[in-house]
Amino acid sequence: MLFEMDPLPLLEADAERRAALQARIDGHEVGVSRAVVAPDLIERLTGWLAGVGRASLPNYVALTPGAPNAHRVNRWDERSFVRANYHQFSFNPWNQDPFDVFRLMAPVFRLRNLLAGAPSEKYLGRAPEEGSIARMLFHFYPAGEGCMNLHRDPVGPHQVAVPLMAMSRFGADYSAGGLVLQDAAGVLRAVDAELAPGDVVWFHPQQPHGIETIDPDTPSDWLSFRGRWSGVFAVNKLQGEASIADAADLGRG
Ligand SMILES: O=C(O)CCC(=O)C(=O)O
Ligand SMILES: [Fe+2]
Is the CB of 148 under 6 A from ligand 1? Predict the structure, then answer.
């Protein structure tokens, strides 16, 4: 169900290619950019995050200017617009880290902005723009319990396409559940089997999507870090801002 996209540098350089890509995304087709980050680097990054996840006390940190990067555990947290079970590791552009994640992920954030008609570096500076900032979020869905309800994300000047990075291997790290997207005919389709760590899928924010429970028959263990990682290239409003609409939870599908 995925279509292969032009390489990111070609898309960044060519408005016509971007328009053709966005037309397919608007039609609820799902594109994929292959090997945006090398798999061995993904493995080092997720290994580091798992260590942070085991050793740090999880916290809910409000998104305010200068907020720290954070590790949060979300277990059906009613404060979330979309109900889910996962570890979240959030990175804000004003903080630095050993992997230089915003430099590593910059080509994806730039294309995300250009598709939305925004300057390529928007939201990536040290200060918020329109009350919003780019955030690199790493989500870990533990086997046995990790999931996210089906939902639609808002469309606006900040986004017309959502990029998500695969960071685990279907069939090796887990063998059931994962990312599902509703196609134009209304059928839910699983895509993880078609992805390798470091691949990025691009889809329309209003296209219903979610994470089906990872290996639902496995006893869950929030500290083993057996399960599924993904990378989310987000633009989020700061606490108290109304500039961006909220996501809409569609339940368990
Ligand atoms: O964690 C994922 O891969 C999906 C995240 C998502 O859809 C969202 O945060 O809106
Ligand atoms: Fe989403």
Answer: yes
